[in-house]
């Protein structure tokens, strides 16, 4: 844990020094990429708690991430449009009334979907504090309701995964509609401009967000390390390995699952709220089920059941992905066919994912067990990973 | 007075025409040649009446040519001819006999160019002839023309032409059109009511639109309802169908109340007043609230330079003092009542047909889902494995069919080859995947789920690399391209019927395989108790492999079916996979009937929600998924659930 | 002797098959009871119903001094009410240490927040150490449960049940797959356990039941066929018919 926090601080400080200090060795866009990657690491750590520790393969955590992004995006877009509108209305002969400003902001924001009214979902958009609360509360509430329904009816294993995927799909389809109130497939844009901080310039803002992301990741890491240690950690892992047995010990397992599911959803929302101001735009495609699947891929490649593994997986795979798909990788000439990585990266990723599940179930994190100086940590993910109970047909007897 | 003279003239003309029975068309035209050469919308009716009254056989042809601007007039003597252009002028033809009538130079004749209004009038006159034209195609065209632009004038010619109609189809059309015109235009209310009632047996769009036209109504307002007004119903301002604002706007439009200055009006008035210096002591920057602006505006009102604001009380009082109602344009209440009753009856029937139509739609969607989901259900039942790449097997099937179509141009033959080949290719892919990946991950269902994700990502991208991102069409044979239309409401395309039949065939095949064959017995044994089955000498590996292949193969077939009515893209599988999962989850695992029930429920539900909210298929899917999440609460094991010890999944 | 657990008139059927048919049974405080019966007699289903895993179609399961109806309660609440269950095969959390396993089972508040903010108290550690000594695993505390031998896992599970401090212990075929020496040991342990709490043992090994030397209930086709001492029930002609008749 100390190691992880140390490395995190080092990366953050390093990037700050290299980009500022007049050296300019690192471009603003790279600082942003770093900041975004840290946010992805945070959501991956959350995913690891839910999946690697608690055994719930959630295919909805990127949706919670997106909800956080939308929540902060609403305020960013509202506040910025308000500033612009107020500026332009200043030229008019009469000072604008509040209603006029709201109407003008409304038509600015919702013009693309042929509306100018503020939907109910924007009720708090003018209030930064409330909207910041929504960043955590909205995904938390959704997770709470969904989790309560799902865990109460004892949906487990692959069933639960499919159900979370359905939830994600429903959410993204709903957002794609124009009358969802969140600008349909246009999404929210211009989020990189922080109202009131425009004078700082993007290069300084990017560093600020890098710091904020690093702080959030460090804090989230500590929080989850706390949750997954001690008796709580013991209970959570026991749920993963044999939920029925734990029930006979008197633990209301659904309460624990609900707690973990909701807590990680809230942290995911926070990660999203830090990510999208750095990305600049959010649209419903970001919430598609595929995004949550990729999240699972990162965690699996990084190594489940250890928090640093998830972070490493997310950082490595997302950075590699953007390098390959961004055209950064040189094409590979096979003689008969030239491999353009923009086309073939997904194939490589998909297949390497299969390979990892087949041959390295411990992921990259498993490499750390090979360091001879270290006392081997107890195998916290179990020999066959989670969910051995899923195919159980009689009590107490795993097949 | 003028009318008297005109009447006398007409009588005179009638008298004149009597002895001159051998009169030619030319003679009639020459009675008033200027009316032909330079007709106007106003005078042409009279001229046409005169021409039609002659009952000469050549009249229709003449009218047609006239309308088509193919009639010429010789400058020298003012006679009318048809003409054909030659190299150095025109060949002329007699308008009565069509016989050649010599030539003419370019300058010696001039074409008659009736304007659009006149041509419309000519066309109306022509319809009378066209309705009894020997050529059925032209009679049909005339009917279409009337349908498009019905008017009272057509009613009599139409009625006259019915008796002589020989073509039964056209006769039916004419009778129907006659009813429609009678319902709208007949002078006798009793005849109209009879015709309206007769329309009730008809579910066609036309008859409904006629009824709606008769029932056209608009909101009206007055201090009291005037005598003889045909009132549909009284409207309550602020009620569901007349908002307070709309009601007041109606009053303003009728001049019964002063307009309310809007916030914009107030603003504009203030801006103007400030600009003209009429409010010198006012600081414009203080006008940043509605209250401040209202106060400043009231000063303008007091100065008489702006219309006063209207208070809410004044609005209420004005609304109170008047009565609002929805008034029919049609004055006869008996007619509107009959139309309302008929429309209600007809709508009930239409609703029934629509339900049937949705039922058919839902059935065909359910067939698709069934084909897509059954493979998933079998593999999940037997192996406890959810195959996330199942959608990609659908895609593989569809691309196989696309490739076959590229090689074999004959569409029927290519379809016949594609179906088994799609099965074979998907079967092979499924078996390969089972052996290479799934077998190694046995009893780790979540990891299998993830590994198949990986395969799904890779397969989709490979397809994209090979076939491009563009959608590839899969053309159905021509005998599949039509649709079965029962009436205006109920219709279903042949492809959907074919898919339904395909689904039935596979349902039957699967039932036979599972119930009657050795393989089926073994599959059922492994589904119910893998350990026991293994100890009975059944090789579970072999069963798993075959089951997986079978499930994948059916997905391939589903791919061909989906490709035929949608398009083949690398993402097509992903579009169906979630619904397929839902069908499996809702239906219950490891059971053909369960999957059938699940697919039917999902398909039906989707269509039903789409029907309630037709503009928004995205919302439909959202609501459906929400429904399923709730459904799982009550039946966590699906519709067809196994109970007891075997139920613990 | 007042009844600790009173099962009255329960029935349950799976797809038309009646697994339990109007079964009534009472277990007293600190009683050792053996339930025997041929395969399919409904022994395991009976335990499933008592522990909340299966819900009966009809009937009541009354518990304790206040006659709380256990039907409709979930497993966790029933377990917290004081009913422990030992499965046929040892089920311990193999990816966790022996110590963690025992701590999980300790009778402490079970709510998520109580657990999240709980600290390891010295008396808990002492209790765990005491139990570990009693089951002979004191040396194995830091080891992963998955590394233990089959017998050790059995003991660990019994240790977890001790830590849970139930008033009624349901034990499913404890002697299955055991050597004679281990059986001896198990018999002694069960009898010792029954000094402080009620113990119900489901078994079909007559020899083992004889050693327990307790009241015996014979189940057949989902209902009670006979009840009494072992000698009494084995002399019952119906029981002989069921066990030897076919």
Automatic annotation (TrEMBL), chain A:
Which compartment or compartments is the protein found in? Cell membrane
Q: Do you know which Pfam families this protein is assigned to? A: BPD_transp_2
Any keyword Lipid biosynthesis? Answer: no
GO CC, one annotated term: plasma membrane
- Membrane topology classification: Multi-pass membrane protein
Q: Which domain of life is it from?
A: Bacteria
Q: Which CDD domains match?
A: TM_PBP1_LivM_like
Indicate yes or no for the key word Ribosomal protein. no
Name the InterPro entries on file: ABC_transp_permease, ABC_transptr_urea_perm_UrtC, LivM-like
What keywords is this UniProt entry annotated with? Cell membrane, Membrane, Transmembrane, Transmembrane helix
Q: Please list every transmembrane segment annotated in the UniProt record, as residue ranges.
A: 128-151, 158-176, 204-227, 256-275, 281-300, 307-324, 344-371
One MF term in the entry's GO annotations: branched-chain amino acid transmembrane transporter activity
List, as start-end ranges, the regions of compositional bias called Basic and acidic residues.
388-399
Q: Where is this region: Disordered?
A: 379-399
Q: For this UniProt entry, which residues form the secretion signal?
A: none
What NCBIfam families would the database entry show? urea_trans_UrtC
Stated name of the protein:
Amino acid/amide ABC transporter membrane protein 2
Q: Which organism is it from?
A: Rubellimicrobium thermophilum DSM 16684
Taxon lineage: Bacteria, Pseudomonadati, Pseudomonadota, Alphaproteobacteria, Rhodobacterales
TrEMBL record, chain B:
Keyword Transmembrane carried by entry: yes
Q: What are the record's GO terms for cellular component? A: plasma membrane
Domain of life where this protein originates: Bacteria
Main location group: membrane
Alphabetic keyword roster: Amino-acid transport, Cell membrane, Membrane, Signal, Transmembrane, Transmembrane helix, Transport
Isomerase is among the record's keywords: no
Q: Give the GO biological process terms.
A: amino acid transport
Membrane protein topology class: Multi-pass membrane protein
User: What does the UniProt entry say about where the protein is found?
Assistant: Cell membrane
Transmembrane annotation, as ranges: 362-386, 415-433, 495-514, 545-568, 580-605, 617-634
What terms describe the molecular function in GO for this protein?
A: transmembrane transporter activity
Q: Where is the signal peptide?
A: 1-22
Which family does the similarity line name?
Belongs to the binding-protein-dependent transport system permease family. LivHM subfamily.
Protein name per the record: Amino acid/amide ABC transporter membrane protein 1
Give the source species: Rubellimicrobium thermophilum DSM 16684
Automatic annotation (TrEMBL), chain C:
Q: What is one GO cellular-component annotation here?
A: plasma membrane
Query: GO molecular function terms here?
Result: ATP binding; ATP hydrolysis activity
Could you tell me which residue ranges the ABC transporter domain spans? 5-246
Residue ranges of coiled coil? none
UniProt cross-references to SUPFAM superfamilies, sorted A to Z: P-loop containing nucleoside triphosphate hydrolases
Could you tell me the superkingdom of the organism this chain comes from?
A: Bacteria
Q: Which keywords appear in this protein's UniProt record, sorted alphabetically?
A: ATP-binding, Nucleotide-binding, Transport
NCBIfam families, per the entry: urea_trans_UrtD
Designated name of the protein: Urea ABC transporter, ATP-binding protein UrtD
């Amino acid at each position: 844990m100390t190691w992880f926090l140390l490395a995190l601080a080092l990366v953050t400080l390093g990037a700050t020094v290299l980009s500022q200090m007049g050296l300019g060795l690192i471009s603003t866009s790279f600082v942003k990429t770093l900041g975004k990657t840290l946010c992805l690491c945070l959501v991956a750590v959350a995913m690891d708690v839910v999946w690697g520790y608690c055994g719930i393969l959630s295919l909805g955590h990127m949706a919670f991430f997106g909800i956080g992004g939308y929540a902060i995006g609403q305020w960013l877009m509202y506040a910025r449009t308000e500033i612009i509108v107020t500026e332009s209305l200043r030229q008019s002969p009469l000072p604008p009334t509040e209603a006029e400003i709201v109407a003008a902001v409304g038509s600015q924001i919702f013009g693309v979907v042929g509306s100018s009214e503020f939907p109910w979902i924007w009720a708090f958009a003018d209030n930064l504090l409330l909207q910041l609360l929504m960043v955590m509360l909205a995904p938390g509430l959704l997770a709470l309701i969904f989790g309560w329904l799902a865990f109460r009816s004892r949906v487990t294993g692959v069933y639960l995964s499919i159900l979370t995927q359905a939830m994600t799909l429903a959410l993204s389809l709903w957002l794609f509609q124009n009358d969802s109130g969140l600008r349909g497939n246009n999404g929210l844009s211009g989020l990189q401009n922080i109202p009131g901080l425009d004078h700082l310039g993007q290069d300084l803002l990017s560093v600020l967000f890098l710091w904020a992301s690093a702080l959030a990741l460090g804090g989230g890491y500590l929080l989850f390390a706390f949750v997954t240690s001690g008796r709580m950690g013991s209970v959570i892992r026991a749920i993963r390995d044999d939920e029925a047995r734990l029930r006979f010990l008197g633990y209301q397992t659904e309460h624990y699952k609900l707690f973990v599911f909701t807590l990680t959803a809230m942290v995911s929302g926070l990660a999203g709220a830090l990510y999208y101001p750095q990305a600049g735009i959010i649209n419903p495609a970001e919430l598609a089920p595929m995004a949550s699947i990729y999240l699972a891929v990162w965690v699996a490649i990084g190594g489940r059941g250890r928090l640093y593994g998830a972070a490493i997986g997310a950082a490595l795979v997302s950075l590699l992905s953007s390098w390959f798909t961004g055209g950064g990788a040189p094409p590979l000439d096979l003689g008969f066919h030239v491999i353009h990585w923009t086309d073939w990266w997904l194939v490589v990723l998909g297949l390497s994912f299969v390979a990892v599940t087949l041959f390295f179930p411990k992921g990259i994190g498993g490499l750390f067990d090979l360091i001879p100086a270290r006392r081997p940590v107890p195998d916290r993910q179990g020999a066959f990973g989670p969910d051995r109970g899923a195919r159980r047909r009689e009590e107490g007897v795993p097949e | 007075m003028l009318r008297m003279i005109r009447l006398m003239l007409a009588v005179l003309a009638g008298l004149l025409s009597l002895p001159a029975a051998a009169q030619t068309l030319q003679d009639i035209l020459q009675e008033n040649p200027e009316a032909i050469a330079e007709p106007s919308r106003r005078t042409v009716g009279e001229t046409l009446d005169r021409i039609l009254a002659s009952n000469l056989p050549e009249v229709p042809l003449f009218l047609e040519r006239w309308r088509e601007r193919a009639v010429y007039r010789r400058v020298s003597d003012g006679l009318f001819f048809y003409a054909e252009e030659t190299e150095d002028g025109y060949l002329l033809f007699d308008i009565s006999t069509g016989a050649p009538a010599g030539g003419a130079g370019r300058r010696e004749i001039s074409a008659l160019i009736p304007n659009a209004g006149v041509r419309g009038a000519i066309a109306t006159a022509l319809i009378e002839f066209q309705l009894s034209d020997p050529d059925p195609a032209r009679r049909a065209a005339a009917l279409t023309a009337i349908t498009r632009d019905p008017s009272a004038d057509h009613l009599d010619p139409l009625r006259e032409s019915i008796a002589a109609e020989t073509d039964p189809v056209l006769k039916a059309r004419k009778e129907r059109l006659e009813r429609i015109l009678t319902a709208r235009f007949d002078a006798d209310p009793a005849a109209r009511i009879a015709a309206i009632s007769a329309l009730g047996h008809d579910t066609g769009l036309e008859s409904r639109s006629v009824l709606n036209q008769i029932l056209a109504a608009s909101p009206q307002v007055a201090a009291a309802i005037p005598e003889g007004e045909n009132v549909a119903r009284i409207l309550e301002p602020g009620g569901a169908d007349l908002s307070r604002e709309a009601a007041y706007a109606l009053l303003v439009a009728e001049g019964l109340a002063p307009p309310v200055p809007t916030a914009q009006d107030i603003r504009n008035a203030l801006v103007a007043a400030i600009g003209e210096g009429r409010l010198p002591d006012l600081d414009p920057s203080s006008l940043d609230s509605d209250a401040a602006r209202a106060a400043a505006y009231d000063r303008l009102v007091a100065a008489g330079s702006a219309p006063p604001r209207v208070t809410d009380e004044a609005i209420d009082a004005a609304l109170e003092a008047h009565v609002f109602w929805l008034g029919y344009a049609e004055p006869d209440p008996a007619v509107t009542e009959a139309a309302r009753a008929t429309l209600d009856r007809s709508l009930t029937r239409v609703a029934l047909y629509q339900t049937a139509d949705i039922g058919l739609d839902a059935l065909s969607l359910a067939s698709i889902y069934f084909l897509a989901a059954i493979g998933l259900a079998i593999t999940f039942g037997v192996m406890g494995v959810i195959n996330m790449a199942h959608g990609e097997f659908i895609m593989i099937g569809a691309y196989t069919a696309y490739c076959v179509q590229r090689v074999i141009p004959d569409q029927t033959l290519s379809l016949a080859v594609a179906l088994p080949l799609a099965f074979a290719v998907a079967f092979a892919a499924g078996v390969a995947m089972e052996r290479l990946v799934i077998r190694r991950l046995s009893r780790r269902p979540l990891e299998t789920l993830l590994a198949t994700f990986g395969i799904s990502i890779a397969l989709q991208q490979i397809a994209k690399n090979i076939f491009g991102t563009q959608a590839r069409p899969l053309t159905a044979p021509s005998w599949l391209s039509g649709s079965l239309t029962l009436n205006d409401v109920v219709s279903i395309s042949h492809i959907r019927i074919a898919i339904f039949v395909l689904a039935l065939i596979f349902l039957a095949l699967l039932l036979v395989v599972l119930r009657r064959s050795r393989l089926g017995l073994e599959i059922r044994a492994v589904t119910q108790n893998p350990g026991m089955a293994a100890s009975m000498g059944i090789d579970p590996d072999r069963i798993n492999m075959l089951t997986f292949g079978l499930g994948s193969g059916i997905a391939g077939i589903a791919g061909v079916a989906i490709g035929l009515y949608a398009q083949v893209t690398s993402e097509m599988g992903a579009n169906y996979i979630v619904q397929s999962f839902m069908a499996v989850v809702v239906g219950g695992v490891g059971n053909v009937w369960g999957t059938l029930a699940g697919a039917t429920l999902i398909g039906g539900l989707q269509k039903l929600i789409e029907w309630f909210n037709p503009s928004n298929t995205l919302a439909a899917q959202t609501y459906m998924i929400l429904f399923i999440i709730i459904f799982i609460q009550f039946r966590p094991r699906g519709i067809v659930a196994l109970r007891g010890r075997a139920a613990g999944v | 002797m007042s009844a600790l657990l009173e099962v009255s008139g329960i029935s349950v059927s799976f797809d038309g098959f009646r697994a339990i048919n109007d079964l009534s049974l009472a277990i007293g405080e600190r009683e050792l009871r053996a339930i025997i019966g041929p395969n399919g007699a409904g022994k395991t289903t009976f335990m499933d119903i008592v522990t909340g895993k299966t819900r009966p179609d009809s009937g009541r399961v009354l518990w304790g001094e206040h006659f709380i109806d256990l039907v409709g309660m979930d497993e966790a609440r029933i377990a917290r009410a004081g009913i422990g269950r030992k499965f046929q095969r040892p089920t311990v959390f193999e990816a966790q240490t022996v110590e963690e396993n025992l701590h999980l089972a300790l009778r402490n508040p079970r709510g998520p927040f109580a657990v999240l903010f709980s600290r390891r108290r010295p008396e808990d550690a002492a209790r765990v150490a005491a139990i570990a000594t009693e089951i002979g695993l004191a040396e194995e505390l830091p080891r992963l449960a998955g590394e233990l031998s089959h017998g050790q896992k059995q003991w660990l599970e019994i240790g977890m049940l001790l830590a849970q401090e139930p008033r009624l212990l349901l034990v499913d075929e404890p002697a299955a797959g055991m050597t004679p020496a281990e059986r001896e040991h198990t018999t002694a342990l069960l009898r010792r356990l029954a000094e402080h709490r009620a113990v119900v043992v489901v078994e079909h090994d007559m020899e083992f039941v004889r050693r327990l030397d307790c009241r015996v209930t014979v189940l057949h086709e989902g209902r009670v066929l006979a009840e009494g001492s072992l000698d009494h029930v084995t002399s019952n002609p119906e029981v002989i018919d069921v066990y030897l008749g076919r």
